Amino acid sequence: MTNKRLIYLDNNATTPCDPRVVDAMVPYFYEVPGNAASRNHPFGWAAEEAVDYARDQIADLINVDPKEIIFTSGATEADNLALKGVYEMYSRKGNHIITVKTEHKAVLDACQKIEKMGGQVTYLDVDDKGLINLEELEAAITDKTILISVMWANNETGVIQPMKAIGEICEKHGVLFFSDAVQAVGKIPVDPKETGVHLMAFTAHKMYGPKGVGALFVNRKKPRVKVTAQVDGGGHERGMRSGTLNVPGIVGFGKAAELAKKEMAQDAARLSKLRDKLEKELSANLEEVYINGSVENRMPHVANVSFKHVEGEGLMMTFNQEIAVSSGSACTSASLEPSYVLVALGLGDDLAHSSIRFSLGRFTKEEDVDYTIAELTKGVTHMRNLSPIWEMYKEGVDIDAIEWGSEH
Length: 408
Ligand code: PLP
What we know:
The protein is α/β, with parallel strands linked by helices. The chain has two domains: about 20-260, Aspartate Aminotransferase, domain 2 (3-Layer(aba) Sandwich), CATH 3.40.640; about 265-395, Aspartate Aminotransferase, domain 1 (Alpha-Beta Complex), CATH 3.90.1150. Helices cover about 40% and strands about 15% of the residues. It is built from 14 helices and 15 strands. It has helices at about 20-25, 25-30, 40-60, 75-90, 105-115, 135-140, 165-175, 190-195, 245-285, 310-320, 340-345, 350-355, 365-385, 390-395; strands at about 5-10, 70, 95-100, 120-125, 145-150, 175-180, 200-205, 215-220, 290, 300-305, 325, 325, 330, 335-340, 355-360. A seven-stranded mixed beta sheet has the order 2-8-7-6-5-3-4, sandwiched between helices. A four-stranded antiparallel beta sheet has the order 9-10-15-12. The longest helix has about 40 residues, at about 245-285. Pyridoxal-5'-phosphate (PLP) binds near residues 74 and 203. Pyridoxal-5'-phosphate (PLP) binds near residues 106, 182, 183 and 203.
């Protein structure tokens, strides 16, 4: 083991398991080994009881009926089940889905597959704060629209969409409303029924539970929503998702939900103070610092910050042995692409490439944030001191107006 200091500020990628979650899971690997579908012996009954208990804990967190929770292997599967499952189930009613350009790939790729299957998908733009325009949403609805899919909070910027207003539009037009709520559940109050959401995907490993277990909420009454199973087999989960249930994982998910319900408010209050401190001090220490996304409507623990004229990937390399964050660039096979989410907000390639996402979590300490501020300040200053572009900027050259020539 290294004795280097390690700071984890990448909680939107995944959260560490809370030790209390791990303690709850342990007996279900060995002491209670049953299959929750084995109805004819005590091992199976004990496993089923544990799953039922966890289902109650999870339903309680989001204020729904436990029968409305369908367990899956994670949110990617839940997103696919919601989109493809609704598309297949309601194909006689229509084939049009509306979603947003800044959705997670699990939604966008499922939508692309639906287009290949003959569906029509409208991808809405967002404004420079990352928010959709409600009039554009309403105008996009046709008599063939069966589903509107809008994520609750964005994974890169933390921006929260106007969910209740979207729910009202869906209600008015009799269209189903699905939300990928992965980044919101367990962190802020999420109540799909009160919001008019009929299907909702979420996952344990973004709320201090284990990886590899998630859920889809499917509304049972007014309206009674159905999805066509995408995984066929033994008819588990009311026929919507077959496969032996991951009992230890589900027990951990349940415990994580129970803890989130109790601790969410205090976690959010503490983390938003730390996040604000991070943004404020970085902006005070350095020039040309930009906060990306709506600061009024966003998650309490996320900061997406661009350090102009500094390449985010390069910056990360100056401290990533010690501080884990994410950059606004994505490696594709051929090149480093700017994040499509930040591009959708209207950021140019330079600002998108110079962005860093900090996502704080339950185990982040104030000293971690202080250390990060100091290291980032050093790293950005160092990189700018080496940069000819920065030198030109300091000499008063308008960098954005330069037309860079090509070598060939
Ligand atoms: N949706 C969003 C917004 C996410 O952030 C993630 C995780 O990165 C997913 C879906 C996928 O979740 P899972 O890892 O449980 O498949």
